[in-house]
Specification:
Layout: H1 3-8, E1 15-19, H2 31-46, E2 51-58, H3 66-73, H4 75-83, H5 86-89, E3 93-97, H6 105-118, E4 125-132, H7 134-150, H8 161-165, E5 178-181, E6 200-203, H9 213-224
Parallel strand pairs: 1-2, 1-5, 2-4, 3-4, 5-6
The structure holds 3-methylbut-3-enyl trihydrogen diphosphate and magnesium ion.
3-methylbut-3-enyl trihydrogen diphosphate binds at residues 19-21, 55-58, 60-61, 185, 187, 189.
Length: 235
């Protein structure tokens, strides 16, 4: 059986996340990262994955040189153009997770426009994490919960892990099954810290622009061979 058929006959994860590392040489490879994201999203949609969360810009990435921050700020516009047509045809929804108070006005407008336009689509949810960091996500969630307690909408004893999960950007997405990082680094860099509680990890040597269909299937094949116990005993 081919690798693809083997993967498709097994459990296909509901939600995967990718730390798209290894685009360092932005200037030279400008066209690659976005095209790659489009292709990977289309493959995920094709094989029935429900959600794909990708790390495009972290809350710490503002500390990079201005030229690179400027380039990264243009990504949503490039995404919008790259996704046109095919995403509509395939019914793919796009959402953004992250802070919205540090972007130029045109970036906020674009994000809102894309989300509004695609919100009723029922295919893959592509969750683009942009000015995203887990510390901020969890801190903001905690603030919301405290507000609800202060206004008597919620009592302290009602705060459960589910309540906390419902105050994170990923509240409408399935549980995270698999976290992939490209480019050989093996760290999380403040990405989805709450959501990875029982995720499997896969670290790929390939840089993000070279991570294509075949590498994704390799990651899924590897994932399917794991024995997930969720704290219980071996099945
Ligand atoms: C993670 O990579 C964030 C993105 C891929 C957007 P970083 O380059 O920001 O993180 P470190 O510094 O390697 O940990
Ligand atoms: Mg890095």
């Amino acid at each position: 059986m081919s690798l693809e058929n083997r993967v498709l006959s097994g459990y296909v994860p509901q939600h995967i996340a990718i730390i798209m590392d290894g685009n360092g040489r932005w200037a030279k490879k400008r066209s690659l990262p976005r095209t790659n994201l489009k292709n990977i999203a289309l493959v995920c949609n094709e094989i029935g994955i429900k959600a794909l969360s990708v790390y495009a810009f972290s809350t710490e990435n503002w500390n990079r040189p201005k030229e690179e921050v400027d380039y990264l700020m243009d990504l949503p516009k490039e995404f919008e153009e790259t996704f046109k047509g095919k995403f509509k045809e395939k019914n793919i929804r796009v959402m953004f997770s992250g802070r919205r108070d540090r972007f130029p006005e045109h970036v906020i407008e674009l994000i809102e426009r894309v989300e509004e336009k695609t919100k009723d689509r029922t295919g893959l949810i592509l969750n683009i994490c942009f000015d995203y960091g887990s510390y901020t996500e969890i801190t903001d969630g905690v603030k919301e919960i405290v507000k609800e307690v202060q206004s008597n909408k919620l009592s302290i004893d009602d705060i459960t892990p589910e309540i906390i999960g419902n105050h994170l950007y990923t509240k409408d997405l399935p549980k995270l099954d698999l976290m992939i990082r490209t480019s050989g680094e093996e760290r999380i860099s403040n990405f989805l810290l709450w959501q990875i509680a029982y995720s499997e990890f896969y670290f790929a040597k390939k840089h993000w622009p070279a991570f294509g269909r075949k590498e994704l299937f390799k990651a899924l094949d590897n994932f399917q061979k794991r024995n997930r116990r969720f704290g219980g005993l071996k099945e």
